[in-house]
Amino acid sequence: MNQPARPNLSHVAERCQMAASFRWTARLGMHESVANHFSLAVDEAGRRFLINPNARHFARIRASDILLIDADDPRTMERPDAPDPTAWGLHGALHRACPHARCVMHVHSIHATVLASLADSRLPAIDQNTAMFFNRIAIDEGYGGFAFEEEGARCAGLMADPSRIAMVMGNHGVLVVGLTVAEAFNRLYYFERAAETYIRALQTGRPLRVLPDAVAERTARDWEGYSGFAEAHLAELMAILDGEGSDYAA
């Protein structure tokens, strides 16, 4: 992709990656109305981050629309372009409390939310995709309402362990983290695929073929060591958007 020259706009490459992720998430039907948010830390401390603007549909977000805010700035919600209060509450808390969570993606995608609605929201390793998340998921069983600041801080506490790459937000949805946009988006994509496989398997009413723990752990590590896969995934999606003449990078 030839990135537009914008001397007055910071973090252009990262903005383009985020915008492409928003567009593709909408194309997959994993978005919800004008809700849900993705964020990316852009400073070493992880406190300054990019996030989608308030009430903008994922299918229309462009690189130049994405906000740059500071998790430590109490005046953020006084800005004329203030983010959604739940975006500030949840993502601000994550970026303050979890510096390892460089990129945070939260959606209410259908199958992940079905999983979050079950009394037992664990995701057993029944195939290669579900095994990606073996022993790497936090499960929130204490939903307390919209993710304003207090609820956001509580959720962030559940992701303090750097080994957690996803959180099943009980009665709510899913949240994934990564070091880059590509890594987080790849995990978001595969979590929804994994949740769908599990839910459909449950619908058969037949016994599940659960992988032994040792095999599941080895598969999860294979995923972690599969160098360049997430980057290639996102690069291909951006190439498709470019070929279609999308304005996501504008």
Explain how this protein is built:
By secondary structure, this protein is an alpha+beta fold. It has a single domain, classed as Class II aldolase/adducin N-terminal domain (L-fuculose-1-phosphate Aldolase). It contains eight helices and seven strands, in the order αβββαβααβαββααα. The chain has helices spanning 12-27, 85-97, 110-116, 128-131, 149-158, 181-203, 213-224, 229-243, and strands at 37-41, 48-51, 67-70, 103-107, 137-140, 166-169, 173-178.
Task: Outline the fold blueprint.
Elements: H1 12-27, E1 37-41, E2 48-51, E3 67-70, H2 85-97, E4 103-107, H3 110-116, H4 128-131, E5 137-140, H5 149-158, E6 166-169, E7 173-178, H6 181-203, H7 213-224, H8 229-243
Parallel strand pairs: 5-6
Antiparallel strand pairs: 1-2, 1-4, 2-3, 4-7, 6-7
Helix pairs in contact: 1-6, 1-8, 2-5, 3-6, 6-8
Question: Which short descriptors sum up this protein?
Answer:
7-stranded mixed sheet, 250 residues, alpha+beta, single chain, 7 strands, L-fuculose-1-phosphate Aldolase, globular
At the fold tier of CATH, the topology name is L-fuculose-1-phosphate Aldolase
- Name the CATH architecture: 3-Layer(aba) Sandwich
Largest sheet: 7 strands, mixed
- How many structural domains does the protein architecture include? 1
**pLDDT average, as an integer?**
96
What is the element string, with H for helices and E for strands?
Answer: HEEEHEHHEHEEHHH
User: What is the C-alpha radius of gyration, as a whole number of Å?
Assistant: 18 Å
What is the count of helical runs?
8
> How many DSSP E strands?
7
Helix content: 40-55%
The fourth-level CATH homologous superfamily is: Class II aldolase/adducin N-terminal domain
Class from secondary-structure proportions: alpha+beta
Estimate what percentage of residues fall within beta strands. Answer: 5-15%
Rough outline:
globular
